[in-house]
Amino acid sequence: MTALTQIFTSSLGRKYIMGITGFGLVGFTIIHMLGNLQIFIGQDTLNAYAKLLKSSAEVLWAFRLALLAMVVLHLGAAISLVIDNRKARGQNYVKEKSLSSWASRTMIISGTIVLAFIVFHILHFTAGVIGVEYNAHVLPKDEQQRYDVYTMVIEGFSNPWISLFYIASVGLLSWHLSHGISSMFQSLGFRNARSAVFLDRASLGLALVIFAGMAVVPTAVLFKWIE
Q: Is the confidence at residue 156, as pLDDT, over 80?
C-alpha cells in the first residue's frame, strides 16, 4: 500500500501515470479514428463494425470504465503536477513560460476543453441526450437487422453547428496531442536532447494525421460526399 501511495503522491509517480495513461488514450483515439473512417467504405462495413463492438455488453462496459479511469487519472495527475510546479517555481515560472511552446503552456486548458467535448460526444451519439430524434436509443435496423450506425452518423453530422463544433474540438485535441505525445516519452524517461527534435516533429505529424482523420467525416457529411 505504501508503494501504491507513493505512485500517486510523488512527482515521478504522477509523471508515470500521465505517460502510461497518455499512451492508452492516444491509442484509443487512433483506433476510434480508424473505426470512424470505415464510413467511407460503406454502410455494411460500418454497421458490421458497430455490431462487433457491441457484441459483448460486459466487454464493452469494462472497456468504457477503463477508458474513464484513464481520463480521470491523466487529468488528475496533470492538474496536480501543474499546481506543484507553479508552487515550486514561484516567480521563475513566469520567466520560463516564454521559453516553452504555446501548446505546452495551454495543455491544461486544451485538455479541459477536450474533456468537455468527449462528454458532449457521448451525450450526442451514445446517451442520446442531444439529437434525440436519431440516436443509439431509437436507431432503425438495416437489411441485416443490425443497428444502422451509418445513418446515425450522417444524420448527427448533418447539423452544421454540431459538425463545426466537432471539427473545432478535434482541432483542440490535435493541438493538445502535438505537445502531449512528445511529453509522454519525457514522462517515462525516453526523451533526451538527442531524440527531442524527432519526437517533437513526430508528435506534430501524428497530431495532424489524427485531426485530418477525425475531421474528414463531419466535413464529408456537410459537403454531401457521403449520404
A: yes
